[in-house]
Design a protein that fits this description.
The structure holds two protein chains of two kinds.
Chain A (H helix, E strand, L loop, with lengths): L1 E4 L4 E4 L4 E2 H7 L7 E5 L2 E2 L5 E2 L4 E6 L7
Parallel strand pairs in A: 1-7
Antiparallel strand pairs in A: 1-2, 3-6, 4-5, 4-7
Chain B lengths: L11 E3 L4 E3 L1 H18 L8 E6 L3 H12 L3 E8 L3 H18 L3 E5 H5 L3 H7 L4 H20 L3 E3 L4 H13 L3 H6 L3 E2 L7 E3 L7 H11 L15 H15 L3 H13 L4 H9 L2 E2 L6 E2 L5 H13 L1
Parallel strand pairs in B: 3-4, 3-6, 4-5, 6-8
Antiparallel strand pairs in B: 1-2, 7-8, 9-10
Helix pairs in contact in B: 1-9, 2-9, 5-6, 5-13, 7-10, 7-11
The chains are: A mainly beta, B alpha/beta.
Chain lengths: 66, 303
């Protein structure tokens, strides 16, 4: 599957099927800091992503503070 | 995973609540959390005029949307920071949201209206960019609220923001800041009441709310914020949260309940020493307020 990451923007190819939790673990991404979006739809950690899916892993941590 | 409320398929899991939600029930959850925060902390009353500080990011646009949906009289205030493409894009996202919701947006542009931008101004004033930005926002949001006759300024600070600030203040035992870290700062001394209605919601929830509501927010991070301490604190707290869901909420809300009052006297004493800035009249501990100093140094550097 094609996996899009942002900040910085980059793309990865990852073989499916794989559960969202397992994908995040494989990429060493903290699941508290991202949302996973498949074809414009949010998916939960137990969802299984297929080989032909296009997936965005969107960082949600933001902000500067004085 | 099933939605806790309607038992339909869930689209988001909130481990802190040990629950999943479908799209509609999640939007309901977010609105209820904001309603509860407003009620619990007596943030604002029906009929009051609210000015929400908007940046084009997920938190402030979600807050504006939720306050409109809850029936508040709320206008937006956008501050152009002069940070190149980032500011251009964040302004576009904000204007598009305002137009879509038919909401009133006030705009202040730092370079045009105040004569400096954050990258150059912070350099001239020898402040880190996030510090110069935060200082400018606090001053100009308050001034705009006073000028516009608003009763309250609402900001999009969420649970992660508050937990990270608390973490930083505790690491340094910054007593004065701990005494001021409240979801509501009362009006007085020329300050309009400030409220943080998103304190019961995390960043992940705010981003999900925007996606589910079709709110097009600026996803890219501010280039000036890269590598700052606040982001490092958030990452550290998320590492703890992953192992212990609910840790961030417990850290912040237990502080409010059990410890916040211990630091009030110091914060009150500092506030009692404030006097009007000789230049703009805003309350300040010195002769000239920090914003006027920043503006003078930035202006001198650019002239």
């Amino acid at each position: 599957m094609r996996v899009l990451l942002r900040n910085p923007r980059r793309e990865l190819e990852v073989p499916g099927p794989v559960a969202v939790h397992a994908l995040l673990e494989r990429l060493a991404i903290n699941r508290e800091s991202v949302l996973v979006i498949r074809s414009d739809t949010l998916v939960t950690g137990d969802a299984v992503l297929q080989d032909d899916d296009v997936v965005e892993i969107r960082q949600v941590i933001s902000g500067g503070a004085a | 995973m099933k939605c806790r409320r309607c038992k339909g398929p869930a689209v988001i899991e909130l481990r802190r609540h040990n629950a999943g939600f479908c799209g509609d029930c999640f939007v309901h959850h977010c609105r209820e959390q904001v309603r509860r925060a407003i009620d619990e902390h007596r943030m604002m009353a029906a009929g009051e005029r609210v000015l929400v500080a908007v940046s084009g990011g997920k938190d402030s646009l979600a807050l504006w949307d939720i306050l409109i949906e809850l029936g508040y009289s709320v206008d937006g205030l956008y501050l152009g920071l002069g940070i190149g493409e980032y500011s251009a894009s964040s302004g576009d996202h904000t204007r598009a949201f305002a137009a879509r919701r038919g909401a009133h947006l006030i705009e202040i542009d730092l370079p045009t209206d105040l004569g400096f931008d954050i990258p150059n101004g912070s350099r001239a004033a020898k402040r880190v960019p996030c510090s110069a930005c935060g200082l400018s926002k606090r001053h100009l949001f308050n001034q705009a609220a006073v000028d516009g006759g608003y009763d309250v300024v609402a900001t999009g600070h969420n649970l992660d923001d508050e937990a990270a600030v608390l973490f930083g203040n505790v690491l340094r035992w910054n007593i004065e800041y701990l005494g001021r870290q409240l979801p509501v700062l009362a009006a007085g001394l020329g300050f309009v009441r400030k409220v943080k209605p998103l304190v019961r919601l995390g960043e992940r929830e705010m981003a999900a709310y925007c996606i589910l509501r079709g709110i097009d927010y600026i996803v890219e991070e501010c280039p000036m914020a890269e590598g700052n301490r606040h982001l490092a604190y958030k990452e550290a707290l998320n590492d703890i949260e992953e192992r212990s869901p609910g840790a961030k909420a417990a850290f912040y809300f237990e502080f409010l309940e059990k410890a916040s009052h211990l630091f009030q006297a110091t914060a009150d004493a500092t506030r009692a020493e404030l006097r009007p800035c000789s230049s703009c009249g805003s309350a300040t501990p010195g002769d000239t307020c920090a914003f006027c100093k920043l503006r003078a140094r930035a202006g001198a550097a650019s002239s």
